[in-house]
Amino acid sequence: MSVRFLIGLPVAVLAVGPVFALAGTAPAQAPAQALPTRPGISVNYSCTAQTWAGDPLPTLSVTATQGMRQAQGQAKTMWGGTAKFATITCTPV
User: Fold this and answer.
1) How far apart are CA 63 and CA 41, in angstroms?
2) 43 vs 90: CA distance, rounded Å
């Protein structure tokens, strides 16, 4: 029984190997945010949101060095907790 297993193992590896080789040659996807992401490079964002009642809040200008998620967090604190986080959208300017 163990001899059959040892003979079948290399056959299985050889059969599955090309599948993983093809998966590794797929073209690389571009990042969702094509802005400079090195530490220390600041990017200006324009952020909008709604209150919990659904009213629009005034547009904010935010500078962030760590990306859009940081810009959303800064905008949230600048609005003083009146913004519903799921509605905050920041776009690079």
Assistant:
1) 10
2) 11
Please list the residues that pair with 4 across neighbouring strands.
Answer: none
Q: Which of 40, 70, 75 is nearest to 60 (CA)?
A: 75
Place of tokens 């905050």: 88
Give the alpha-carbon dihedral of 59, 60, 63, 68, to 10 degrees: -50
Residues in the chain: 93
pTM, entire model: 0.57
Which DSSP category does 66 fall into? S
CA neighbor of 69 nearest in space, from 50, 43, 93, 51 = 43
Q: Residue-wise pLDDT tens for the chain (93 aa)?
A: 566 655 665 666 666 566 555 555 655 555 555 555 566 789 999 999 999 999 999 999 999 999 999 999 999 999 998 999 999 999 999
> Residue 7 class from Cβ within 10 Å (0-12 exposed, 13-18 middle, 19+ buried)?
exposed
